[in-house]
Amino acid sequence: QSVLTQPPSVSAAPGQKVTISCSGSTSNIGNDYVSWYQQLPGTAPKLLIYDNNKRPSGIPDRFSGSKSGTSATLGITGLQTGDEADYYCGTWDSSLSAYVFGTGTTVTVL
Amino acid sequence: EVQVVESGGGLVQPGGSLRLSCAASGLTFSNYWMNWVRQAPGKGLEWVANIKQDGSEKYYVDSVRGRFTVSRDNAENSVYLQMNSLRVEDTAVYYCHGSYAPADFWGQGTLVTVSS
């Protein structure tokens, strides 16, 4: 059972915005940077956001990240059918001395 | 261009062993923390283990500590996962993952099936 909680699914129409929450604790999100990963069906995950709110080269600015206290949020604007995927947050947990992923959220474009 | 090749997966009986390998090219491998991440069929991502750039630090998820060993050979641009005393619940696709923010790469995954 993951220590980072995400909603199982979110959905919106093309062009709309979705947000995905990631709730943790003082030993993980409250203590370290958060990353977000996108996993398209049948493929390996890909880094979308690192250090809470930074985008690697090649990631469109439709994707954004933020963190406040022990929670983090991924935002996707201008939703496209190609954004249908599973999204995971992740960070280091100092109490477990382990990296932890969120439970994962499936984004559906209606 | 970064290329990552994983190998070593397969079918093994409970209690058996496997050694996974991950070879990367097109990057400075020694800059990267290397992780192993697994995904059971239809489930989410689970971090398994990681190893620091010089191999001086290694960490494991509780469920594999004492059974799995991560190692690396920077001269060969490779990371390994020795898996012993395998259990049915270790069945998953195993990904190698290199992290050196913002640089980040993933292998294609190799399937490990533990079954009698």
Percent of residues of chain B in beta strands? over 45%
DSSP, total strands of chain A: 9
Number of strands of chain B: 11
The pLDDT mean of chain A sits at 97
* Biggest sheet details of chain B: 7 strands, mixed
The stretches of 5 or more residues of chain B where confidence is low (pLDDT under 50) are: none
Distance between the termini of chain A: 30 Å
Number of helices of chain A: 0
- Largest sheet of chain A, described in full? 6 strands, mixed
Q: Ends of chain B: how far apart?
A: 40 Å
Strand content of chain A: 35-45%
Average pLDDT confidence of chain B is: 97
Total number of helical segments of chain B? 0
Q: For this entry, what is the oligomeric state of its chains?
A: heterodimer
What structural class do the secondary elements of chain B suggest? mainly beta
| Series of H and E elements of chain B | EEEEEEEEEEE
Q: What pattern of helices and strands is seen along the backbone of chain A?
A: EEEEEEEEE
If you had to describe this structure to a student in words, what would you say it looks like?
The complex is a heterodimer of chains A (110) and B (116). Helix content of chain A is 0%, strand content 45%. Chain A is mainly β. In chain A, the strands form 2 sheets. In chain A, strands 1, 3, 4, 7, 8 and 9 form a 6-stranded mixed sheet that branches. Chain A has a 3-stranded antiparallel sheet with strand order 2-6-5, with no helix packed on it. The radius of gyration of chain A is 13 Å and the shape is globular. The N and C termini of chain A lie far apart (30 Å). With 116 residues, chain B is an all-beta fold. Helices cover 0% and strands 54% of the residues of chain B. Chain B has strands at residues 3-7, 10-12, 18-25, 33-39, 45-51, 58-60, 68-73, 78-83, 92-100, 103-106, 110-114. Chain B is globular. The interface between A and B is medium-sized, with 24 and 21 residues.
